[in-house]
Design a protein that fits this description.
Layout: E1 8-9, E2 12-18, E3 21-25, E4 60-65, H1 72-85, E5 87-93, H2 98-108, E6 115-118, H3 131-145, E7 150-155, H4 177-185, E8 190-194, H5 211-214, H6 228-241, E9 247-249, H7 259-268, E10 272-275, H8 280-283, H9 287-296, E11 301-302, H10 311-322, H11 347-362
Helix pairs in contact: 3-4
């Protein structure tokens, strides 16, 4: 019988007992050609500058977050984190309507100077005759309840408000026109997610350098599902049709692999902004191109996170934006299995991306 004191502790096992002493053996090392990519966690050995940014160099407004704090205590802890790292305000993209929205507004309303809550759109029966006024009436109610914007709307090719069994409508559909115009009337910006980045449309094979994220967020090419350029084009048409309405293309309209595409839209449409939420790892492999993009479109790019509000998360995003650090890894952005390279944005650009652009966008409300 195995002695009672034979246990496994971490990676070391007490393997034998000899002369009253425990003999410890380490587990066999996995051969390099058998290490799974999901288990590959390299550490940089380059002797180069490593900067820790405790607090953003300027006040920050996070325009892309969600209802991560479900209790008053968690909201208070979030505010404490904001104070630590230099966040002035956070926009909660609830995407909800009705009682769920009201509950969210009530919870965050206790810190109304630090949080703003945005609502969704009620797509129920939108294809049915006479349903448009119902959706607009709920939008007006949400505004009166305290919602200051709309989002995050999402169309990954199946349409807004799509279910697994039914395709929804896209943002450029004529059915959306009166709702989008109502947003302009109510001075409510629209934050919208279209598609996914190009890795998610490429073959899931050895040539896909974003494979570890691509397989999880894969977009099917089944009939009726708009592909990348098609769904991005729906946003461009909607922004063009509704110049009085402010739009935010979250995640840079998922054009991280083609910054010229979103850059061209920003140049063409003065009512369009873009946030960088949850696209730090996607941008980090091409630091010079990213820095150039930020500087060329410095008046229209917004800071966002779209991730759990932990202090170290914010600090890594600040490091990418502010420093010139190269070839480093961060636990929050390891899903692509490549190193990060920071963008060293000039102070004038940082001020705009962190806060000034958001203030200008929000002042239209």
């Amino acid at each position: 019988m195995k002695p009672a004191f034979f246990h496994t502790f971490g990676i070391v096992e007490f393997a034998a007992v000899s002369f009253g002493c425990l003999v410890m053996t380490a587990p066999a090392q996995i051969p390099p050609d058998q290490i799974l990519l999901k288990d590959y966690k390299p550490q940089s050995i380059f002797n180069i500058p490593q900067t820790r940014v405790e607090r953003a160099c300027y006040p920050v407004i996070d325009v892309h977050s969600h209802d991560y704090a479900r209790t008053d205590a968690e909201i208070t802890r979030w505010v404490e984190t904001m104070d630590q790292v230099g966040l002035e305000k956070v926009i909660i993209l609830s995407g909800s309507t009705g009682a769920k929205l009201d509950s969210t507004i009530e919870r965050y309303g206790k810190h109304s100077n630090r949080f703003a809550v945005w609502c969704g759109i009620d797509f129920t029966g939108l294809r049915q005759p006479g349903s448009g006024p119902t959706a607009m009436a709920e939008l007006e109610r949400c505004r009166k309840a305290g919602a200051t914007g709309v989002g995050e709307l999402s169309d990954k090719g199946r349409g807004l408000g799509a279910t697994t069994n039914e395709l929804g409508i896209h943002i450029d559909d004529p059915l959306m026109d009166p709702i989008i115009e109502k947003c302009a009337e109510l001075r409510m910006p629209i934050n919208i997610h279209v598609g996914e980045d190009k890795w998610m449309y490429e073959p899931l094979d050895k040539t896909n350098d974003g494979l570890m994220n691509a397989w999880k967020w894969r977009i099917t090419n089944a009939p009726g599902i708009l592909q990348h350029e098609e769904v991005v084009a729906t946003l461009a048409r909607a922004v063009s049709k509704h110049p009085r309405t402010t739009f935010i293309a979250c995640h840079l309209a998922n054009c991280c692999t083609d910054l010229d595409r979103i850059g061209g839209m920003l140049e063409k449409y003065p009512n369009l902004y873009a946030d960088i939420g949850a696209r730090y790892a996607e941008l980090a492999p091409i630091p010079r191109a990213v820095s150039k993009f930020f500087q060329e479109h410095q008046d229209r790019v917004l800071y966002g996170t779209d991730l759990n509000p932990e202090p170290e998360l914010y600090r890594v995003t600040f490091r990418l934006l502010e420093t010139a650090d190269e070839h480093f890894y961060a636990d929050y952005f390891r899903t692509y299995h490549w190193p990060l390279h920071a963008w060293a944005l000039p102070d004038a650009v940082l001020k705009k991306v962190y806060r000034e652009n958001a203030l200008r966008m929000l002042s239209a409300q």
